[in-house]
Amino acid sequence: MAGTKTTKKLRSQEWFDNPDNPGMTALYLERYLNFGLTREELQSGKPLIGIAQTGSDLSPCNRHHIELAKRVRDGIVAAGGVPFEFPCHPIQETGKRPTASLDRNLAYLSLVEVLYGYPLDGVVLTIGCDKTAPALLMAAATVNIPAIALSVGPMLNGWHKGERTGSGTIVWKSRERLSSGEIDYNQFMDIVASSAPSVGYCNTMGTATTMNSLAEALGMQLPGAAAIPAPYRERGQISYETGKRIVDMVREDLKPSDIMTREAFENAIVINSAIGGSTNAPIHLNAIARHLDVPLDNDDWQRVGHHVPLLVNLQPAGEYLGEDYHHAGGVPAVVAELMKAGLLPHPDAITANGKSMGENCGATENMDPKVIRSVADPLKKDAGFINLRGNLFDSAIMKTSVISPEFRDRYLSNPKDPEAFEGTAKVFDGPEDYHARIDDPAENIDEHTVLFMRGAGPVGYPGGAEVVNMQPPAYLLKRGIHSLPCIGDGRQSGTSGSPSILNASPEAAVGGGLALLKSGDRVRIDLRMGTADILVSDDEIARRRAELQNDGGYHFPAHQTPWQEIQRGMVDQLAQGMVLKPAVKYQ
Ligand code: FES
Ligand code: MG
Q: By its UniProt entry, which PANTHER family does this protein fall under (predicted)?
């Protein structure tokens, strides 16, 4: 445990220092000497530390890790360890077709194999772009050797004409202006490019800032490590400290299962509400928990997190961006605000530096209360997720921090008489179908329509597409109607401020209720009761189900690659973390 040195023989010595089997030892050893390592480095009990490198030319968000790894190596050597940097399967959120989340489990699998099969005593997980954090934490959970995460850090703030332009969020905003003819194609490109002014990951509170903050909230990063912008000098310094610390974690045998406990996940859920974290967070944290055999489900997200206020004023829920978040104090300042109000459930949870969350963060000063608000003066109250269920699905997540005040008063928090919301369904089968039909006036989409996206879950659109936040037709935008309720079995970008109902599980492709929905059905959503139902009789539902079965089930596009087929055959649903079902028994 933290602080105490273990006398356990190092794992790497089974490879490099095993006199009982000199033949194998020599074979292992000679090839690792050939690039200049010495027997003293490999055989004298120095911890061998992997640096799981996620940066590459294909992964621009994480590419700066190639530079940072030099400082990590310096730290490892300074503490008496030996660094071994190796590449991870690239996962670039914006560049990978059909979707980067298809590759989360592939990167997980390949890292498990590396950590298990090579002589590593501990590992630095270089995280950043959305899926890299969960993929690497899941692998560390499965293999359970000492591990510490290191964020690459967000990009600098984007600016255009004196206003902050935030990653992703500016795309959703500007494409409306493009659709309505307010700006042209080239103006649109310039505005969006302004949001990416430097190396680093998305500067909004999208899935990257969320997952990097939550890696710290879980205790898997050094305090303050999540929010430092990628180009800042502190980023290199924390990289060095991270390299030093992992060597001591090996000596203390401080493992992922010691840090990522049920208590740590409850802390992370509360912190996620306070930061206004992405709806991808429950998918990824539920997945990490499953690989540790820690019970965690979407009901926990509502029960532990819904009553927590939104404190962090970052786009898309607020105004500011990553640099501002860092200047205000990042995760430690958020934790300190929560602790002042008694809202952090487990201040005693141990973290990677061997101290508790409370010891690390309790005294942190909030340097900018405009960016990180206090619990007494929050951006929004009760800002965590709610978990909905009904005859359409067993579980779907709604991010309440982005619901408009009018909608919230009317449908969620009016203490006297919150109404249920009713509308008429318009159903799309995948993003291509949506794009083909949304602007067609014959579809009769109006302000009473609820847009449904199905065929977008982990099986239907392999990996689960971020397509549920659907823009209304151009003719409604021109009339000033900027959003319609959206529900779907896919995901939504964390940079979107749409109050969609997402991650519906089970998805249509595996026979979930959404497969039975027809355009024109009336739909009733009661946020207060946590229900979403089609208003058709049980008999009609049974009839449609029989019809669907006769038709061979819900149809989805053919596999395009071997991995798509392999994953579709064994992937679990979004509510269950979208893990590979056979993988969770390896703990
Ligand atoms: Fe990589 Fe947002 S696209 S961090
Ligand atoms: Mg995304």
A: HYPOTHETICAL DIHYDROXY-ACID DEHYDRATASE (EUROFUNG)-RELATED, HYPOTHETICAL DIHYDROXYACID DEHYDRATASE (EUROFUNG)-RELATED
Ligand 1 pocket residue status of 130, Cβ below 6 Å: yes
How far, in Å, CA of 542 to CA of 520, rounded?
18
Q: Which ligand has the shortest distance to the CA of 130?
A: 1
Question: Atom 2 (ligand 1): residue with closest C-alpha?
Answer: 202
Question: Which residue intervals of 125-182 are DSSP H helices?
Answer: 132-143, 169-179
Question: Residue 553 C-alpha to ligand 1 middle, in angstroms?
Answer: 35
Q: What are the backbone dihedrals phi and psi of residue 2, each rounded to the nearest 5 degrees, phi first?
A: -55, 135
Q: What is the mean pLDDT of residues 134-144?
A: 98
Question: pTM of the prediction?
Answer: 0.97
Confidence of residue 416 (pLDDT cuts 50, 70, 90): low
3-state secondary structure of 385: strand
Helices in 438-509 by DSSP H: which ranges?
Answer: 474-478
Band of residue 326 on the pLDDT scale cut at 50, 70, 90: very high
Residue 312: strand pairing partners:
372
Strands of 65-121 (E only): list them.
Answer: 82-87
Closest residue by Cα to atom 3, ligand 1, is 93
Asked, as a colleague might, if the bond just before 472 is cis with ω within 30 of 0, I would say no
379-412: b (≥16 Cβ within 10 Å) or e: bbebbbbbbbbbebbbbbbbbbbbbeeebbeebb
CA 108 from centroid of its chain's CA atoms: 14
Q: Is the CB of 195 under 6 A from ligand 1?
A: no
Length of the chain: 587
pLDDT tens string 218-230: 999 999 999 999 9
Q: State the Cα–Cα distance between residues 213 and 328, nearest whole angstrom.
A: 14
**Which atom of ligand 1 is nearest to 59's Cα?**
1
**Residue 466, ligand 1, Cβ within 6 A:** no
Q: What is the per-residue pLDDT across 155-167, written as a single tens digit (0 to 9) for each?
A: 999 999 999 999 9
User: Contact at 8 Å (CB) between 160 and 194?
Assistant: yes
The helix/strand/coil state of 28 is helix
Closest ligand (CA of 496): 2
- Give the distance (Å) from ligand 2 centre to CA of residue 274: 20
Evaluate whether ipTM surpasses 0.90.
yes
Q: Is the CB of residue 429 below 6 angstroms from any atom belonging to ligand 1?
A: no
Cα–Cα distance, 132 to 126 (Å, whole number) = 8
* Structure-block tokens of residue 233: 């000098």
Q: Is the pLDDT of residue 2 over 80?
A: no
Q: Which atom of ligand 1 is nearest to the CA of 167?
A: 2
Select from 59, 129, 278, 315 the residue to mutate for testing ligand 1; criterion: most ligand atoms less than 8 Å from CB. 129
Mean pLDDT of the 477-498 span: 86
337: helix, coil or strand?
A: helix
Minimum-distance ligand 1 atom for the alpha carbon of 130? 4
Tell me if 578 sits within 8 A of 101, measured CB to CB: yes
CA angle (125 as vertex; 120, 127 as ends), nearest 5? 160
